[in-house]
Protein 1
Amino acid sequence: MKYRQIGGLQASAVAVGCMRIAKMEPAALSTFVHTALDNGVNFFDHADIYGGGESESVFGRLLAAEPGLRDKLILQSKCGIRPNMYDFSKEHILKSVDGILSRLGTDHLDLLLLHRPDALMEPEEVAEAFDELERSGKVQRFGVSNFNARQIALLQSGLKQKLLVNQLQFGLKCTGLIDHALCTNTEFPHSADRDGEALDYCRLNGLTIQAWSPFQYGFFEGVFLGDPKFPELNGKLDELSGKYGVSPQALATAWILRHPAGMQVICGTTNAQRLQDICTGCGVELSREDWYALYLAAGNKLP
Ligand SMILES: NC(=O)c1ccc[n+]([C@@H]2O[C@H](COP(=O)([O-])OP(=O)(O)OC[C@H]3O[C@@H](n4cnc5c(N)ncnc54)[C@H](OP(=O)(O)O)[C@@H]3O)[C@@H](O)[C@H]2O)c1
C-alpha cells in the first residue's frame, strides 16, 4: 500500500468509498472491511446521503459489533447536499454532523468534507460551524468536494482550519482535471477548463485530491473496464496488464496513483476480492510512455 499524509494522518492511497454498501449483509461487510485492513487500506469515505443514511448505519452497526475496530480506521464523511439544493448553513452543517456521528456510532470524524459547492455559501458562517465542531471534538479535520480553485480560496479565506482535501471525479474515462492543461492555447474541444484549475490549486496549496468513481465513465454511468464501448482503452489495458503482471483494474488504479499530485483513489467496490486486486495497483509504477498511451487510448488527443 502507498500512503498519503493528510493533516498528520497516514492515509492509504487506495480508500474505500461507502456509497454502495447500504444493502450489504453484516457478515459480508465485516469480511470486506477486514480484507481492506489486511491490505493496508485504512481510509473509509462516507456521506450523509449515501443510501439515504443507511450506508453509515450499516457501517455503524459493524463498528458496534466489533469493539476496537473504530480506532483502526480513518473515517471521513460529507454533508451539504439536500434534496434539490445545497446547504452550507451553520445549522445544517451542525445538524448533519450529529446525524453522521449517531449513525456511525462514533464520537468523532477524522475528516468532514462539504460535498458540493453551495452558491449561497458564506465563509464566515461555515467558519462558525467548523470552529464549533473542532472545539467539541466532533470533527478533527476539514475539506471539500467538487470545488474549483476560487471556491476553495474563498472558503479558506474565512476559516482558521486549513482545508486538507478536495474530492473530485478523476479516472481514465474522466480526465477533465488534466485535459485542458494539456490543450492550453489550442482550439481543441478539451482546451476548455471545466474544473476551475482545481488540480494545480490543490497541488500548490497542499490539498490531497481524492479521485472518486475511478472506474466509471460519464457522470458515474457505468464501469469502463471490459465495456465493449471502449475497445481501444480495454485493449491497451489488457496489453499492459501482461507487461506489468497485474489486472486491468489495478492498472487503471496505478494510472491515477502515477500522477505526481499524490492522489487517493476512492474505490466503490463492495467486493473484497476486487478490492484486494485493486490494491495491487499500488505496486506498479507506470512508465511515462505507458501512462500517456493509456490517456490516448481512452480517447484523448494531444496537440
Ligand atoms: N464526492 C462526490 O461527489 C462523489 C460522487 C460519487 C462517488 N463518490 C465516492 O466515490 C466512491 C466510489 O464511487 P463509485 O462507486 O462510483 O466508484 P467505482 O469504484 O468507479 O465503481 C464501483 C462500482 O463499479 C463496480 N465495479 C468496479 N470495478 C468493476 C469491474 N472491474 N467490473 C465490474 N464492475 C466493477 C462495483 O461493483 P462491485 O461492488 O461488484 O465490485 C461498483 O458497483 C463512492 O463510494 C463515494 O465514496 C463521491
Protein 2
Amino acid sequence: MHQLEIIGSEAVAAALDGRETAVLECVRDTYLLHERGRTVNPDSHFLRFPEKPDSRIIALPAFVNDDRPTAGIKWISSFPANVARGKQRASAILVLNDYETGHPVAVLESAAISAARTAASAALAARVLAKQAPETVGVIGAGYIARTVCAYLAASGTPLDRVVCHDQDPASAAALAAHLNGRSPGTATTGALQDALDADLVVFATTALAPYVPVAHRFRPDQLALHLSLRDLAPETLLASHNIVDDVEHCLKAQTSPHLAEGLVGHRDFVNGTLAQVVLGDVALDANRPTVFSPFGLGVLDIAVGRLVLDEARSTGRSVSAEGFFGDPVRW
Ligand SMILES: NC(=O)c1ccc[n+]([C@@H]2O[C@H](COP(=O)([O-])OP(=O)(O)OC[C@H]3O[C@@H](n4cnc5c(N)ncnc54)[C@H](O)[C@@H]3O)[C@@H](O)[C@H]2O)c1
C-alpha cells in the first residue's frame, strides 16, 4: 500500500544543517534546468483577504523534469501581524507527488525549505553577480530570510566582516546584529537605511508592499543589490541599474518593482537577463551600472530542495510514515 511520508521541522532542519553547499548546487542546477525549458512553473496563485490586505497565502505548483521527474506544490502563508506577537510571519507545507502515478508521496514542513532555497539563490547571485568581494554588507529587513541569507552568504564564501543591519523595527535590527555577532564577534552593527544602502552588497528582505527607498536613490556601479523582497526599490532606481531576474515572466507581475518599472516605461528592455544566463555566460555584467537581482522565487526550487530534504530524511531514518492515510488504491 502506498504510504504518505511526513517530514517535520526537526527532520527538515537535520537535512539542511551544514548542507548549504549542496542546497546551493541544487538551486543552481534547477535554475539551469529551468532555463533549458525542462521545468513547468505556472503562475503562483495569491489568496488575499479583503479585511487583511497585508496577508496572503500563495500556492506554487511546479514540476522538475530531470532524471527523477518530481511534481509538487508549496502552500505558503504570510501573515505579517504574527511578527508583533513574536511569531514567524511565514509558514508553509510542501507536497511532493510521484510523476509515475501522481500520488502524493510526502508532506514536508516548508518554511525552512523555502528560506533555504531563497538564501541559496541569494548566495548564488552574490557569487555570480558581485564585481568584487564585498567589504561591507547592508541588510535591510532583519527577519528569518535575512538571517538565513547571512548564513548562506557566509557558507558560500561571501565575507561578512562588516554588516550593517537596518529594520524599521529597531529591535529586529538589533536581534540580527546580535545573532551575527554571536557567530563572529564585532562584525555587525545596526544602522540607518542610508548606511545599509551604501554597503557594497545590499540585501533587501523586508515585507514592504510598495517602494520606500527614495526615488532619487542610485546605487554605485560597483554595488550589487539582492532585491529579495521585490517591492523596496522605486522603478527609477531599477531603470538606472543592470537588472537580473530569475524568470522574466514571473518577476514582472504582482506589483513588484520590476513590474512597476514596466508600467512606467511600457516595455521590458530594462531587464537584462536571468541569473542562469549569467551563469551560462550568455549575459555579461555591465561595468558602468550597478546590478540589481530581483528573484520572484520559483516553485521549482522548492520542489528540488524539498526532494533533497526527503532523500536525506529517508536515508537517516527521519521520515515518518502516515500509516493508513491513503485508502486501498485498487479501483474495484
Ligand atoms: N524572492 C523570494 O524568493 C523570496 C522568498 C521568500 C521570502 N521572500 C520575501 O522576503 C521577505 C522577508 O521575509 P521574512 O520571513 O524574513 O519576513 P519577516 O517578517 O521575518 O521580516 C521582515 C522584516 O522587514 C521589516 N520591514 C518591513 N518593512 C520595512 C521597511 N520599509 N524598512 C525596513 N524594514 C522593514 C520588518 O520590520 C521585519 O523585521 C518577505 O517580503 C518575503 O516575501 C522572498
